[in-house]
Write a sequence for this structure.
């Protein structure tokens, strides 16, 4: 029987050094989904700074896990053994629950952070464009998105919760004190970069410089924030002028090497340089943290702030878990009904064939019946079959289970029929 299946790794099972090598950029998704389609009828790739998860439909979980890990390994040139040591696989209701918790912000490093819901939508859109989602995956992800919205609207799990961007600012404040008078360089003007800039503005920062590969986007963002722009080609000089540099792009290679950072520090005024790399894959070479006067942090360094955020929101998280469980039960009930439909259809077809055959035999033996009489007999026999099948049909829908459904398949599906 086909079932929901997921294999992946996240911030709880893998360090950033592994996650960044297994992640897929937006530009890589079409090719990755195309390869996924070679093995599975349906599939979605959810890749964020905290996780890479591949959701599929399969009737062979062991094989599915192997195929998915091989896809990630082959695509990125990774040793499969490394992935196996940090990955997990879930099937059926557990796989659905995992996705619903993810979309609700319950499995994020920062409990309740809202950016993940948009990332789930983006993953679904990419899969829809690549034609790797049909009825089951569409329903799964639409339900996940709906669950995320419910959790945010009906619980306090996201109210006043920290975003990753605000957590980054708090981390900077814990080392530098007030950041309001400091000079900030933001590398990247995408969604994450925009959120960081807004968080910095809320913390009183007024001197913000934006460096982005697309000058038009830098200009738009600078106008919104009252900041200024710098050409990407002058990135090293811009780093030397900043007190805080936050990198948040989707570049697949480091934008700031150790040598670049060291050179920037040599030519900057006195004072330490705070570097925060929000990106996965990382935009700042890890070795840059060894340069004297540099404090380098990445997304995994938010764990202490994440723990503090979690302690204050345990009750809200419990309310959210109740919603998730209700949505999982409803989705699995829908999926069970979908699984039962071919069996119910085959059962009714078989019963109707018997009804029609026996009625035709009776009509050959009974002479002199009018058309009206034949119509009445037709209606009567249909009614008898419908009444007899009502109970079994309801039972199949209400008490569906693997053993129960398999027994029904054997009774009513002929060889070659598709269930």
């Amino acid at each position: 029987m086909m079932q929901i299946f997921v294999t992946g790794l996240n911030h709880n099972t893998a360090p950033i050094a592994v996650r960044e090598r297994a992640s897929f950029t937006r530009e890589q998704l079409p090719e990755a989904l195309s390869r996924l389609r070679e093995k599975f009828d349906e599939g979605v790739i959810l890749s964020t700074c905290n996780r890479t998860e591949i959701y599929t439909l399969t009737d062979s979980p062991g094989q599915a896990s192997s195929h998915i890990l091989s896809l990630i390994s082959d695509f990125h040139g990774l040793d499969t053994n490394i992935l196996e040591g940090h990955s997990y696989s879930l099937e059926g209701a557990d796989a659905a629950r995992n996705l619903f918790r993810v979309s609700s912000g319950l499995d994020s490093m920062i409990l309740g952070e809202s950016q993940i819901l948009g990332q789930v939508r983006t993953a679904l859109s990419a899969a829809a464009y690549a034609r790797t989602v049909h009825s089951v995956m569409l329903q799964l992800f639409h339900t996940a998105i709906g669950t995320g919205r419910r959790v945010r609207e009906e619980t306090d799990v996201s109210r006043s919760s920290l975003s990753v961007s605000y957590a980054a600012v708090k981390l900077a404040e814990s080392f530098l004190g007030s950041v309001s008078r400091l000079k900030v360089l933001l590398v990247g003007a995408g969604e994450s970069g925009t959120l960081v800039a807004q968080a910095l503005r809320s913390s009183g920062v007024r001197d913000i410089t934006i460096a982005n590969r697309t000058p038009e986007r830098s200009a738009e963002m600078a106008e919104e924030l009252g900041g200024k722009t710098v050409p990407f080609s002058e990135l090293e000089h811009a780093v030397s002028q900043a007190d805080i540099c936050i990198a948040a792009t989707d570049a697949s290679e480091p934008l700031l090497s150790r040598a670049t950072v060291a050179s920037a520090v040599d030519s900057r005024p006195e004072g330490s340089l705070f570097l925060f790399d929000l990106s996965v894959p990382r935009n700042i070479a890890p070795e840059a943290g060894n340069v004297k006067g540099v404090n380098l942090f990445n997304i995994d360094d938010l764990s202490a702030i994440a723990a503090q955020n979690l302690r204050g929101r345990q009750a809200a998280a419990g309310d959210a878990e109740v919603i998730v469980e209700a949505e999982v039960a409803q989705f699995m009930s829908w999926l069970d009904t979908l699984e039962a439909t071919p069996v119910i259809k085959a059962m009714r077809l078989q019963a109707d064939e018997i009804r029609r055959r026996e009625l035709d035999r009776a009509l050959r033996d009974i002479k002199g019946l009018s058309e009206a009489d034949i119509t009445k007999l037709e209606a009567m026999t249909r009614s008898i079959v419908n009444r007899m099948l009502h109970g079994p049909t309801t039972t199949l829908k209400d008490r569906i289970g693997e053993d129960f459904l398999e027994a029904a398949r054997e009774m009513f599906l002929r060889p070659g029929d598709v269930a």
Q: What stands out?
A: The two ends are 8 Å apart (CA to CA). DSSP finds 16 helices and ten strands in the chain. The CA atoms of residues 359 and 378 lie 8 Å apart. The longest strand covers residues 3-10.
